[in-house]
Amino acid sequence: MDQQVDTAAEVDQTKFWRMVNSRRNTSGSKINGGIIFQGTVVRDRDEQLQGWGNHFENLYTPSTSRDFDEQWLLKTSTEVIRTLLSTTTDPNASVSPEVIENIINTLPRGKASGEDNIV
Prior knowledge:
By secondary structure, the chain is mostly helical. 56% of the residues lie in helices and 5% in strands. The two termini are 31 Å apart.
């Protein structure tokens, strides 16, 4: 199951979150149900948190994958560099903490942004 979650995280974000939520809802909701991390059933809450922490740390640690796309990396890296080099700052622009606070207060509560980072 861990390998399937890892693969889904790299290839299909929707499938990944469906698997994570399914695992959390079924395994975590049962008393002493436990969650399997690296072949071991973990029932202790602190050990489960540590297991999830290790899982996500491994997930976002660079590694070689058979699904890795070198051309996509080159394309996106080039686009990021081009965007950064073409970005200019306005020396007259200023943003006060009050403006930021007002904007934050208008955001919906309990919502996360999507892939486009728009809430």
